[in-house]
Specification:
Blueprint lengths: L18 H32 L2 H28 L2 H23 L7 H28 L5 H28 L3 H19 L15 H4 L10 H14 L1 H17 L5 H7 L6 H16 L11 H20 L4 H29 L2 H32 L2 H22 L1 H4 L16 H8 L1
Helix pairs in contact: 1-2, 1-4, 1-5, 1-6, 2-4, 2-8, 2-14, 3-4, 3-6, 4-14, 5-6, 5-11, 5-13, 8-14, 8-17, 9-12, 9-13, 9-14, 9-15, 11-13, 12-13, 12-15, 14-15
Length: about 450
């Protein structure tokens, strides 16, 4: 294998035509840096206020309902309105939530309930925003460069998460969570300014839609949101290859998401100083994979690659639970992060290459459920299991359950198992594409 197969392809960031993608890249880098630090600070603060794994796990439950409701509706908005406007104007709302966390953390006796309320509100705003980001990328990046763009975005995200997790773990201990929340608020302000460089991204013109998808000359903005959500859901179900990618990711996150357990595992391993390091380790592994991602565009069996990566994540998490010391735990967490990175890049490429633009917002909202609903549910599962058994049993049993679930999904969905990326051909509508699905809900 030549060195060029390892060096990331940065073509999407080059040239005057790449200005839009550079704006998205810079915005997400800054925002993820602060958000990840704040996520760690929230968990550490809840653990210190209560000392209960179950309470820390239920922080994820507080985020689950707004994620489901607003993620689906955010997908509708991304197909109805200018995607740049949605991306930009959610940033001040997220900054305001970070300021509210800052104020609570500065109280002489910080309260627990604001962590739940503000986390839910932040998830609602982020869920409205994310489909617009996902649907915007294929509009500013040529289709042939989507795999490279996904790898570059993952490289940025993993670097931000790596640094943010480390900073969050250190700063939440000394001087305290308040500084992390202030840092997060500033990041959203900077991201707002960066997104002003992005060109306007209005929804597809009615003339560009399939006749049955357009409905009438007024386009989708004239239809009820529920009907449009149903169109997206039926399209997702009709595409069994996409459905397999959603389910594999959900299985990995629900059964083997470790974050709620990491502060407790660090304490059991007599290494509370390594809490931030443990949070950062998966991103270190993911960063290593994305930094050597030149080989990824050559992989075409995306369904198989996603299944192997999701199973690898579960196996690595089981080994985290069996780790004899903190160094082994950090190493297995890094391996898990590398596997998750492979899964993320190939999922992202599959979705963006095969979903028509008029459905990308709604499908991004559905994708958000598989991407983001899993961690809150996983935190709840791990916290509940640990509260009646042990932290280690929660991690090991979850990892084993993840591997079993992914194997079952792979066996049950032949379309997912055999999915092969198109070799640069123009996007073709599947037989069960948006027009057919649209007719099904009329």
């Amino acid at each position: 294998m030549s060195w060029s197969a390892l060096v990331p392809d940065v073509t999407p960031l080059r040239g005057p035509g790449a200005r839009g993608f550079r704006a998205i890249f810079a915005s997400r880098t800054v925002a993820y840096l602060g958000s990840q630090a704040a996520e760690v600070a929230l968990l550490v603060q809840a653990q210190r206020l209560t000392g209960s794994p179950l309470v820390v796990g239920t922080l994820g439950l507080a985020e689950l309902v707004p994620l489901i409701v607003f993620g689906l509706y955010g997908g509708v908005l991304a197909d109805r309105f200018d995607r740049r406007a949605l991306m930009r104007w959610c940033e001040p709302g997220l900054a305001g939530c970070a300021v509210a966390l800052l104020v609570n953390a500065l109280l002489p006796h910080p309260l627990l309930w604001p962590l739940y309320v503000i986390s839910a509100l932040m998830m609602a705003i982020a869920s409205v925003q994310r489909p617009a980001f996902e649907a915007a990328t294929p509009r500013v990046v040529p289709r042939a460069q989507l795999t490279a763009a996904a790898a570059i975005m993952s490289l940025s995200t993993n670097a931000s998460v790596l640094v943010g997790s480390s900073l969050g773990g250190v700063l939440a201990t000394t001087p305290g969570p308040w500084l992390v929340y202030a840092f997060d608020a500033a990041g959203f302000g900077i991201s707002f300014l960066l997104l002003s460089r992005l060109p306007k991204l209005p929804p597809p013109d009615a003339a560009e839609r399939q006749p049955d998808d357009a409905g009438d000359a007024a386009g989708p903005a004239s239809g009820p949101a529920l009907r449009e959500i149903l169109v997206g859901l039926r399209y997702a179900v009709s595409r069994r290859d996409l459905l397999g990618s959603y389910l594999a990711d959900l299985a990995a996150m629900i059964f083997a998401y470790p974050n709620a357990m990491l502060p407790f595992l660090a304490a059991q391993l007599h290494a509370p100083w390594a809490t931030g390091l443990m949070f950062a380790a998966p991103s270190a592994g993911a960063f290593a994979v994305s930094a050597t991602s030149g080989w990824m565009p050559r992989v075409r069996r995306h369904g198989l690659a996603i299944a192997l990566a999701a199973g690898g994540w579960g196996l690595a998490m089981a080994l985290v639970g069996l780790s004899p010391d903190v160094f082994a735990a950090v190493a297995f967490l890094a391996v898990a992060g590398g596997a998750d990175e492979c899964s993320a890049v190939f999922r992202d490429t599959m979705w963006k290459q095969s979903i028509p633009d008029q459905l990308r917002g709604r499908m991004a909202g559905i994708e958000l459920l598989s991407y983001a609903a899993g961690p809150p549910a996983g935190q709840l599962r791990s916290g509940a299991v640990a509260s009646v058994t042990s932290v280690r049993f929660s991690l090991v049993s979850g990892g084993v359950a993840c591997v079993a679930a992914v194997a079952a999904i792979f066996a049950a969905l032949p379309a997912f198992r055999h999915y092969t990326a198109p070799a640069g051909a123009p996007l073709e509508e599947p037989a069960s594409g948006p027009a057919a699905v649209e007719r099904g809900v009329q």
